[in-house]
Amino acid sequence: DRVRKALERGEFPVREILIPPGEEVKTIETVGQIWAGLLAGGLERQSTVVVVGGGVVGDLAGFAAATFLRGVPWVAVPTTLLAMVDASLGGKTGADLPQWKNLIGTFHAPRLVLADPNVLRTLPLPELRAGMAEVIKAGVIADPKLFEQIRSTKLHEKSRKGENLETFVSFVDQILPRAIAVKVKVICDDPFEQGFRAALNLGHTVGHAVELVSGFKLRHGEAVAIGMVVEARMSERIGLAERGLADEIADCLRGAGLPTEIPPELDREAIVRTMQVDKKKAGGKVKFALPVRVGEVKVGVEVGNRELGILNSEL
After folding, report:
1. Is 92 a catalytic residue?
2. Which residue in 27, 141, 237, 290 has a CA-CA distance of 20 to 30 Å to 231?
3. Is 204 a catalytic residue?
4. How far apart are CA 84 and CA 203, in angstroms?
5. Are the C-beta atoms of residues 189 and 196 closer than 8 Å to each other?
6. What are the C-alpha distances in Å from 111 to residues 56, 70, 77?
């Protein structure tokens, strides 16, 4: 309501399109509903789609904007920590297929991203914790000082002592610009993921599979946290990372209240099979972004089906 009223005060005519929450609605059918709303609203090529919501909303509406009238401008107003630090940045838009996440999509960067940390006070604490996974990922990729700052703060312990939501938001307000800066530099250097931008997939190959097999009972950030630890253990196993890196990353994630192990009820073989559908597969091998140490990630590490089968024991 506040966004709509602000636009109307600026004499912009507004038509609202509401979609249900949750990863389950991240489908081409929902994109069709958005297209229908844009058409009914009389959207022209000079019009702008303003997207208010989390990562799912941004991906879907951004894709709808990219494809309606062969592309109209859009503005992202992310309302979750995960969306602020990751999903709203870089112009990746799209939808899921039943077999895998984000198999449909295109690059269509927003004209503006407006991330207001005050909005985070409207979130439940578990949602904030889930967003911290992407913040920690930024530290692992390219900012060891950010990683250590989070690791030493032990947010989860402080929140259990009663400081709760305000503790999280105050801390995030301090570190959000650093985390955003990591992704912005990566995407500016490699806007269409032809090289190092693949580092942003750290934790996501395993994480997406875990998320999918869980039936989306795990939040995206929770699944990515698990994926980062598993992939760090894989990196250790193939001799890319030194022993102890996975434990170091797991310690930081646990300090933010995030899970670091796959729930025992999830089918490990199903997770491995799901990874084999990953869109980053090439030549029959899944390509991973694996950590070497905090602050360094190696991209394009090929792992074949046989190695993925062996990975089953790691899961």
Report:
1. yes
2. 27
3. yes
4. 18
5. yes
6. 18, 16, 11
> What letter would DSSP give residue 53?
E
The yes-or-no answer on residue 220 being catalytic is yes
Report d(CA 74, CA 59) in Å as an integer.
Answer: 11
* Single-letter code of the amino acid located at 37: G
Is 118 assigned a catalytic role?
A: no
- What confidence tens digit (pLDDT) does each residue in 210-266 have? 999 999 999 999 999 999 999 999 999 889 998 999 999 999 999 999 999 999 999
Q: How far apart are CA 142 and CA 297, in angstroms?
A: 8
SS3 content of the chain, % helix, strand, coil (to 5): 55, 15, 30
The encoded tokens of residue 26 equal 């991240």
pLDDT digit string, tens, across residues 47-64: 999 999 999 999 999 999
How far, in Å, CA of 228 to CA of 191, rounded? 23
Q: Which residues contact 75 (CB under 8 A, 6 or more apart)?
A: 48, 49, 50, 51, 110, 111, 112, 113, 114
Query: According to the model, what pLDDT value does residue 96 have?
Result: 94
Catalytic, out of 101, 151, 204, 219: 204
Told to judge if 193 belongs to the known catalytic residues of this protein, a careful annotator would answer: yes
Task: Say which of 26, 92, 101, 129 is annotated catalytic.
Answer: 92
Nearest to 249 by CA among 293, 218, 207, 208: 293
